[in-house]
From TrEMBL, chains A, B, C:
<comment type="subunit">
    <text>Homotrimer.</text>
</comment>
<dbReference type="InterPro" id="IPR043696">
    <property type="entry name" value="ArgF'-like"/>
</dbReference>
<feature type="domain" description="Aspartate/ornithine carbamoyltransferase Asp/Orn-binding">
    <location>
        <begin position="184"/>
        <end position="309"/>
    </location>
</feature>
<feature type="binding site">
    <location>
        <position position="276"/>
    </location>
    <ligand>
        <name>N(2)-succinyl-L-ornithine</name>
    </ligand>
</feature>
<protein>
    <recommendedName>
        <fullName>N-succinylornithine carbamoyltransferase</fullName>
        <ecNumber>2.1.3.11</ecNumber>
    </recommendedName>
</protein>
<feature type="binding site">
    <location>
        <position position="75"/>
    </location>
    <ligand>
        <name>carbamoyl phosphate</name>
    </ligand>
</feature>
<dbReference type="Pfam" id="PF00185">
    <property type="entry name" value="OTCace"/>
</dbReference>
<keyword id="KW-0055">Arginine biosynthesis</keyword>
<comment type="function">
    <text>Catalyzes the transfer of the carbamoyl group from carbamoyl phosphate to the delta-amino group of N(2)-succinyl-L-ornithine to produce N(2)-succinyl-L-citrulline. Is essential for arginine biosynthesis.</text>
</comment>
<dbReference type="GO" id="GO:0004585">
    <property type="term" value="F:ornithine carbamoyltransferase activity"/>
</dbReference>
<dbReference type="InterPro" id="IPR006131">
    <property type="entry name" value="Asp_carbamoyltransf_Asp/Orn-bd"/>
</dbReference>
<dbReference type="GO" id="GO:0042450">
    <property type="term" value="P:L-arginine biosynthetic process via ornithine"/>
</dbReference>
<feature type="binding site" description="in other chain">
    <location>
        <begin position="147"/>
        <end position="150"/>
    </location>
    <ligand>
        <name>carbamoyl phosphate</name>
    </ligand>
</feature>
<dbReference type="Pfam" id="PF02729">
    <property type="entry name" value="OTCace_N"/>
</dbReference>
<keyword id="KW-0808">Transferase</keyword>
<feature type="domain" description="Aspartate/ornithine carbamoyltransferase carbamoyl-P binding">
    <location>
        <begin position="7"/>
        <end position="160"/>
    </location>
</feature>
<keyword id="KW-0028">Amino-acid biosynthesis</keyword>
Length: 315, 315, 315
């Protein structure tokens, strides 16, 4: 495995799950694979879960880990070609990335959508430069349009908690005070469409995801109708794709609360975290016994370690 | 050992000292205990000694270490219950803490007094949330009211340098330009009262420590009188407890200088560092052969390692 | 080896190169040397290559590594003697440095020229305080006047790429929007004068390096004349030494471009990075097959590891 950006990079999901549960059972069984191997985690943005869980996963594999908050520790990076670099960015990504690649066997990169340009974001400009120039395998720690370690952890969590062969999984938009990327929703949709689930997306009009992600999922604009008989409710805010990066609604009628959860089939509540209480979800729901957000976050180690193991095997 | 916040958590001080000297003698003898174990050090505040010495202690024990400057690396944390999270804090401590607990076997937390609320500070609101929600053992790296790794290091240092069975130890307030927490003074008092020493606290009126810490110590408002025959002078600034968080005096007559040290029984000079020269202590005293501040800081590794070892044994 | 600040600290360059190539060949062969040994990397300034390559080098040697961004993680340090510390710097370097020394076996320090005082910078005030007070070996990760790990990596790179016994190596000044230290140019000059090369420095009038560095090198004010028959072009900006810290020129006629490279003997292009494209060097030159800036950066691991290995052997 040379890159991990999207669902297709992991191949067969059943096999991926099998590998993941083997690792979860026995996290230190593969330490010799990572001996004398180094991963660098490059952050353009803040991170709590991703930072810690990916470090933990790499250490479980016996690797050395270096963490780089690139804009704070290093130099601001220019990514445009052909510019005269006389401004505030002293280093070009075309130098920085191959150099980072020289110091490690694997790179993880977090680089959120900036909303400056839909084309730049949806062409995955930054992470693709890491793939193109680094010379080593690249793991997305959330890119502009996808968050594949999260989606893999989500799948693992659903597999662990499902009560029936083919559960109903609902991705619901929920309100948030700021404009957020579509990455988590995109990846979750991408994964759920390939998984053994009935998948429904619900959101207000105007919040349609990009075609490549929404296509093939059931879209339901009535949140209550969508929740009916659901086994898993996955809440997440995202900003508009069509009206790119805009907040069209902060309607708290979309907040996930006890009354709406009562419409479900005793659904488990999921969210990738961080979550804003009483915007996305009520205190009552997130603190209920059906909330599995912490178990979901714990599986971030498992998804990361499964991906790292495959990459190590492919070196 | 499931928590390390205060003197009672360490049990018998003689046994603690015995364990500490065993570790100091042979710091790498217990590396197998920490194999495949991870500690996360969470900093809400700046740190030099605590950051480095606790990392070193954990590495000496063979552990993996992750350091999280939570407000810089992660997300600002909300700690109030029941709020609508539509402001600048995107994550609640009730999610963040259990998640961090999923990624490690042990957490160290530094969270200073904020002086916003005496009740919040003295109820140890933040570190108690880590104890309540993390699911793993918690070590205080200085909380709102105590600094127990410092106090343990102080005790070790006194034990190493004492010339008589029962030395006289004086904690003296000294001036400082800003409002500092009472944590170091509180913990030092808590430990000295249980140690085999004659313990005196000296400070200007208005700087009385909280009852639970001051009670049982000799209080002497005349600094020069307090210094008489002292074997150890421990200098520290703190802000007022009664007039909570206020700087009542910056009187340089309280600065520890050569003239006052001459009143002692050739006392050793101690301070937890960082120290403001010529406010807390004169250049001459801190550079004298009787200054043991560096040895004291070195013992921070020993106290941390002793605590970590006990926690590892209790996992 | 107790310190690594300048070319003389490495001794015979041929032996140094021999050691370096042995390490490059077999980077993990000496891991037992670093067992239970710790290096602390202290950064007063930003760093990408130095931060990552020195960490990697130390991990290759089996060491524990701690990284300290001292002004962000720790406390701002006072370095003046005799001051009343009532301002914004709560810790004195005379306490901080010996304490750091207690927590490790070796310190790396990055502390750039501040341009506040030519005397302070050229007397290497900060790094000399680390040498004087830490009690452990000190490696320069770029000091006010020198960057010796870079210069050693440069020498290794030239050795690997040279086509003739005694190549012609040209250090050329090039324009930059801000005032940069002379450290890289100084160290490169210091090393090249001792290496088996013909060494020429070219720069506009007013950009003469300090005597101790320039003396013995050929100085040529006509850049095109200097480039004639060159085998290596090493570009770098620096601010004026005589008119200390001033930017006297931003003349783009000094930018290294294809037309000027055509004057050379098919010279390799070198730069320490980060490099400002189309100021220092054209896109065409830095992306050409003769550009060896990435290989040069990769050798930063080799130079650092060679130095660390010698220090470990000397402990």
């Amino acid at each position: 495995m040379k890159r991990y950006l999207q669902v297709d990079d992991i191949g067969d999901l059943k096999q991926a799950l099998k590998d993941a549960f083997e690792i979860k059972q026995n996290p230190y069984a593969f330490k010799q694979l990572g001996e004398n191997k180094t991963i660098i985690l490059v952050f353009f943005n803040s991170s709590l879960r991703t930072r810690l869980s990916t470090q933990k996963a790499a250490m479980n594999m016996g690797m050395n880990v270096m963490v780089l908050d690139i804009n704070k520790d290093g130099w601001k990076l220019e990514s445009e070609m052909g510019v005269v670099m006389d401004g505030d960015k002293p280093e070009h990504i075309k130098e920085a990335v191959p150099v980072i690649g020289q110091y490690c066997d694997m790179i993880g990169v977090r680089s959120f959508a900036t909303f400056e340009s839909k084309d730049d974001d949806y062409s995955e400009k930054v992470i693709n430069q890491f793939i193109q120039y680094s010379g080593v395998p690249v793991i997305s720690l959330e890119s502009a349009t996808r968050h594949p370690l999260q989606a893999f952890a989500d799948l693992i969590t659903i597999e662990e908690h499902k009560q029936k062969e083919r559960p109903k999984v609902v991705l619901t938009w929920a309100p948030h005070p700021r404009a957020l990327p579509q990455a988590v929703a995109n990846s979750f949709a991408e994964w759920m469409k390939k998984a053994e689930v009935d998948f429904v997306i619900t959101h207000p009009k105007g919040y349609e995801l990009a075609n490549e992600f929404a296509e093939g999922a059931s879209i339901e604009y009535d949140q209550r109708k969508a929740f009916k008989d659901a086994d898993f409710i996955y809440a997440k805010n995202w900003s508009s794709f069509n009206n790119y990066g805009k907040v069209l609604s902060q309607d708290k009628d979309w907040t996930v609360d006890e009354e709406k959860m009562a419409l479900t089939n005793g659904a488990k509540f999921m969210h990738c975290l961080p979550v804003r209480r009483n915007m996305i979800v009520s205190d009552g729901v997130i603190e209920s016994k059906n909330s599995i957000v912490v178990q979901q976050a714990a599986n971030r180690v498992v998804s990361a370690q499964t991906v790292i193991k495959r990459m190590l095997e492919g070196l």
